[in-house]
Amino acid sequence: MEGMLKPGSLSGKTIIITGGGTGLGRSMGKYFLELGANLVITSRKMDVIEKTAAELIAETGGKVLAVQCDVRKYEEVENVLQQTESTFGQISGVLNNAAGNFISPTERLSHRAFDIVVDIVLKGTYYTTLAAGKNWIAKKQPGVFLNIVTTYAWTGSGYVVPSACGKAGVLALTRSLAVEWAKYKIRSNAIAPGPFPTKGAWSRLLPGDLVKQFDPAERIPLKRVGEHQELANLAAYLMSDYSAYVNGEVITIDGGEWLRNGGEFSHLEAIPDELWDSIEKMRGK
Ligand code: HXC
Ligand code: NAP
Q: Fewest Cβ atoms nearer than 10 Å: which of 5, 24, 81, 142?
């Protein structure tokens, strides 16, 4: 649960995190600061990001700028870039982390409910990516994109269909631009986390008693959920120059969850040892 990279691994870098005021965005941002980066956190709620910025400055002694931005509004995204440059100079990396999500049978969704999730996840990510990419290309500066997806970006998943559609689009964006923009020295990678407890995700995906009925750890071969520092370590590596040759990759950090649940015979873990003894006798040696 400790930080993995050498002190100063991100010094001199300025990193923007969308949705950086809460949950995983906050945890990754805190570690970037500990490694010497300047941080810009954005989201719709100014009170939340201002409070987080003050806490992070007190906790790490680093420099944090909070800029209000709804990622679905291109002018607001451009404003974040301008504010970042006038405060810190060059932008080094963008962590596309902002998301919206909730569980629902798809037939119960209004078209506005579908829009709201896809707009935050996919439109928000391509707006930020387009604005930052154009900026880097025009200024002939290198840059790094790191996009937070989920494992159901490629498997799909019932009951979170707008999120699955949005995250699948983000994964396609990541892989496409990794190739197209490599010539500008812009790298694009993604992380697909399994369950990491946050108020934002847990309250919307496991509301009320659901958290007691569906313990996420039960579905995970390692029998536990993720620790924020484990994700922060991976994100810091992908933002740092140590990953200079990693481009177009999506790294899963889920304790083996998605493979286990796609495996034809994974459910046989329910068979106790004594039953395996009788199965062995039945088949003979
Ligand atoms: C069905 C819903 C709904 C729900 C909202 N809507 N919640 N429909 N079930 N639970 C519908 C509304 O009825 C409305 O449609 C439309 O969606 C917009 O709703 P608003 O409440 O007006 O939207 P807004 O206040 O902007 O809130 C956006 C939000 C909210 C996405 C609905 O949840 C939010 O702010 N989320 C941000 C943070 C977040 O979601 N974090 C979790 C990420 S977790 P009508 O037709 O009535 O107008 C994650 C983990 C993935 O992604 C993987 C885990 C392993
Ligand atoms: P979270 O705390 O709810 O984070 C989501 C953030 O997005 C919030 O800070 C929210 O802030 C921001 N946001 C939402 N709509 C926005 C908009 N229109 N413009 C700008 N910002 C917006 O949840 P989390 O669990 O940390 O999730 C972070 C990321 O990890 C998401 O991409 C999520 O899909 C991904 N993820 C999480 C898990 C998990 O288990 N926690 C698993 C897989 C993937 P405002 O409301 O202030 O705008």
A: 142
